[in-house]
Design brief:
mainly alpha; two-stranded antiparallel ribbon; 6 helices; 4 strands
């Protein structure tokens, strides 16, 4: 994870010429990296379009049916956030990616934590990644079983009955009325 404070540069320090040279070198490196990945993207996109064109020429009806059945342009825009104004936000001294969250793996917060961003492709739990669909399905079934056994053994009634033994009126009087 990138931390914004790591990139603060003080120009008026005694070593400002060294910091300036590092900043120029870093910018040059990042520009070269950007050019490289732009060319990789262009080559792969060109290859994808050639395959699509070949499929449209050989089997136009079948290809259009596949495209219409399995591609939703509006859903793709929403999932990729293609028109996001701020692709990267700074929040609490961290840089957060807003652009194309569907391709971003969640950052593990703890060993048992499984909170992720909305379109996360995988969930982190118990030290490893799980497919989101399978993980969510497992949680739904687990909760269904827990609720079933809660109803079957009348556990909710037992909990309420055990709590009702405690005299709540006396507790509220003690807590909220001045003596």
């Amino acid at each position: 994870m990138l931390i914004v404070s790591n990139f603060n540069i003080r120009i008026h320090s005694p070593r400002s010429h060294i910091v300036y040279n590092v900043a120029i070198s870093t910018r040059h490196y990042l520009n070269n990296l950007n050019k490289y990945y732009d060319s990789v993207f262009f080559q792969n996109n060109l290859r994808k379009e050639q395959i699509k064109e070949r499929m449209l020429k050989s089997q136009p009806h079948k290809t259009r049916n596949l495209m219409n059945s399995y591609h939703n342009e509006r859903l793709a825009e929403m999932v990729k956030k293609a028109f996001e104004k701020n692709p990267i936000l700074e929040y609490k001294q961290e840089l957060i990616q807003q652009f194309q969250p569907i391709f971003l793996d969640p950052y593990p917060e703890s060993y048992l934590g499984f909170r992720t961003h909305f379109f996360a492709p995988r969930k982190w739990f118990a030290g490893r990644y799980f497919d989101t669909f399978n993980f969510n399905l497992t949680i739904v079934w687990f909760m269904t079983l827990v609720l079933y056994f809660t109803l079957h053994f009348k556990a909710l009634k037992r909990i309420i009955d055990s709590v009702s033994v405690i005299n709540l009126k006396k507790i509220f009087k003690f807590l909220f009325i001045k003596h």
